[in-house]
Amino acid sequence: DDAEDINSVENAMLEYAAMDRELNHYMKALEETVNQIKREKPENIPDLRHLVNEKFTALESKNTDSDLQKNEKYIYFKDQLKEMRKQCKSYFKKNRFFDEAIEQIDEDIAVTQSQMNFICPITQVEMKRPVRNKVCGHTYEEDAILKIIQTRKQQKKKFRCPKIGCSHADVKESDLVPDEALKRAIDSQNKQ
């Protein structure tokens, strides 16, 4: 699937290179036509469109596929792709030997994250009655979130979800539901 995506992007870059070449040829044909008219200063103005098209067609007839591969942006793209592949190979070679250590770290992170999920983003204390926001999925201590929502409502202001990075900008009481699973997890953790 990744190879398919890379081929797709590479084809898009080749299409870009072809359009870039075509635009450059058209600009060059236009410039040559203007210079020709300035040099010859004809009495009757010739069909400029025809002259530009003639020059453009002559330039386009010299096109080859190898021209596209010489496009500056295409070369940059290929270099970046090569560098990324090299870095990925290097990364996987180095890390192949650390799989067990990585698995252990992943487990530690999972435990830490689950414990972090017990902490209310408002009170910064372990939750006793967690409620989950149906819109963004974040959890809070019920009393703390309701108090803030009511205060903001009295001020006629919206309340943004306090979880860092969350884009939910208008938390309402109707968005909240008790999070029984999280409550059981917290209770279970505390019994241990």
From TrEMBL:
One of its GO terms (cellular component) is Smc5-Smc6 complex. GO terms for molecular function: ligase activity; SUMO ligase activity; ubiquitin-protein transferase activity; zinc ion binding. It is found in: Nucleus. Pathway: Protein modification; protein sumoylation. The keyword ATP-binding does not apply. The keyword Zinc-finger applies. Pfam families: zf-Nse. Keywords: Ligase, Metal-binding, Nucleus, Transferase, Ubl conjugation pathway, Zinc, Zinc-finger. This is E3 SUMO-protein ligase NSE2. Coiled coil: none annotated. Residues 105-191 form the SP-RING-type domain. One of its GO terms (biological process) is protein ubiquitination. CDD domains: SPL-RING_NSE2. Belongs to the NSE2 family. It comes from Nycticryphes semicollaris.
